[in-house]
Structure formats: C-alpha cells, structure tokens
Amino acid sequence: MKHIARKRFGQHFLSDRAIIDAIVDAIDPREGELLVEIGPGLGAMTDPLVERCKRLAVVELDRDLAARLRKRAELEVIESDVLKVDFAALAARLGGRLRVVGNLPYNISTPILFHLQGAVEHVVDQHFMLQKEVCERMAATPGGKDYGRLSVMLQWRYDIETVLEVPPESFEPPPRVDSAVVRMIPLPDAARVSPALLGELVQVAFSQRRKLLRHTLGRWLEGRGVEVGFDVQRRAEEVPVAEYVALAQAVA
Prior knowledge:
This protein is of the alpha/beta class. The chain has two domains: 7-186, 3-Layer(aba) Sandwich (Rossmann fold), CATH 3.40.50.150; 195-251, Helicase, Ruva Protein, domain 3 (Orthogonal Bundle), CATH 1.10.8. It has ten helices and nine strands. It has helices spanning 17-27, 46-53, 63-69, 87-94, 109-117, 132-139, 149-155, 195-205, 217-223, 241-251; strands at residues 13-14, 34-38, 56-60, 75-79, 98-103, 123-131, 158-166, 171-172, 179-186. The strands form two sheets. It has a seven-stranded mixed β-sheet with strand order 4-3-2-5-6-9-7. β3, α3 and β4 form a beta-alpha-beta unit. The chain is elongated, with a radius of gyration of 20 Å. The model is unreliable at 1-10 (pLDDT under 50). Its EC number is 2.1.1.182. Belongs to the class I-like SAM-binding methyltransferase superfamily. rRNA adenine N(6)-methyltransferase family. RsmA subfamily. It catalyses: adenosine(1518)/adenosine(1519) in 16S rRNA + 4 S-adenosyl-L-methionine = N(6)-dimethyladenosine(1518)/N(6)-dimethyladenosine(1519) in 16S rRNA + 4 S-adenosyl-L-homocysteine + 4 H(+). Pfam families: RrnaAD (PF00398).
C-alpha cells in the first residue's frame, strides 16, 4: 500500500537516486558507528546508510511508517516526536557518541536544531537536509543580511558548512523551496555560557536590525546594570559570534 505524504508532518520524500548517493557519500558512514536518522520516511536514505553502517537507530513520528520500519531487524525504531527524544540518554544507552542525520521537517527544523544542541557533547557530527535559506542563515558570516540569531546561536557550538544543494524535483511531493544539506561539527573548545542568557542577549540585539545596538542591546545592558567595554555603536549584524559569547560571559 502506497504511503501518502502527510502535510501536517511536513513530509517530502527524497526520490532522486543520484542526490541520495551524494548525501550518503558526504556523510560517509562506517560500520560500528552509532548513526541516528531523524525522519527516515520511506527509507530512501535509510537503505544506503544501513548498507554501510549495518545498524541504524531511526526516529519516526508517523506510526504507519514506524510500523513498516520495525519489520527490519537492522533498525532500532524510536516512534516519537524528535523534540521529545533525549539524545544524551540515547547516546549513553547505545554506548558512545552519535552521528545524527536526517531530512528534517522544514516546519520545525529550527526547534530540532536547538533541541539537539542540548546534547552536543554526545554528538560526533550532524548532516541535515534543510530549506536552503535556513542553511544560508546557519552558516552566514557577519555583515550580511543572512547573519542573525540562528547564525550566532549555532556557530557558538558548531562548525557549519553547506555540502550539497538539492532542487525541489528531487522530492515527492516537491517542496516549494530549494533545499540543501548542511554539515555541523561540534566545536571541542566552545566557550561555556548559558544558552538561555546568550539567546536572550542575541534576540534583543537582532530585534531591530536597522538600528544601532545602543537602542536595543545598550538599553538591555543598562537595565541589568552591566558596564562592559562593548561597542554599541554598531548594528547587530556587524558583531562576530565570539563577541556576543564574550559579552554573555561578562553579563553572567
């Protein structure tokens, strides 16, 4: 029985074999590694991944798809909303650090990225199919229109690069946007800072992009009674990630 893509789950299934092979080559899975696939769907990437790594854990919310996947002995199926999966506990149970991959639902991709950040110490790397625009924001450098809160919050913890662009016709049904595959490698020497504090600080900074920071972040700092040598005569997009992190440490 053919599975009909469910709009509420943001389902778009990869169908282009050349693209699938290119993604798996970019991931380069090896036998013995602990791979976790988010949203395996109809198994387009699952099959070539299992060929190389032999065993795979998959997180699937759709109960019909999860039932199909359970018929395969080489798969451990976690039927759950990915936002409810404790990846740190999963790593501990599987006995090592995880390599996380997946074609993420575009409607909740950002919450998934932030959820996984909470288990970053237990992850070797991440390879995700995302909306191309989101990938550009994730990897953006200071000074451009794509650089923003998402750039800062993720680049604080990861080295990020786009490894492949994917056109809409590679999916069934095709999405209305271009897609891309991004590689995220946790930084071993990331500065220690409260994610909540950094998130609040960066959100305030980018709340009015066209204004100088003295109108937004400057007032936020004054309200906290913080006096630090931070130049607020700039716009938010001009400040490098390291400066935002250092400021959050100083505020803390």
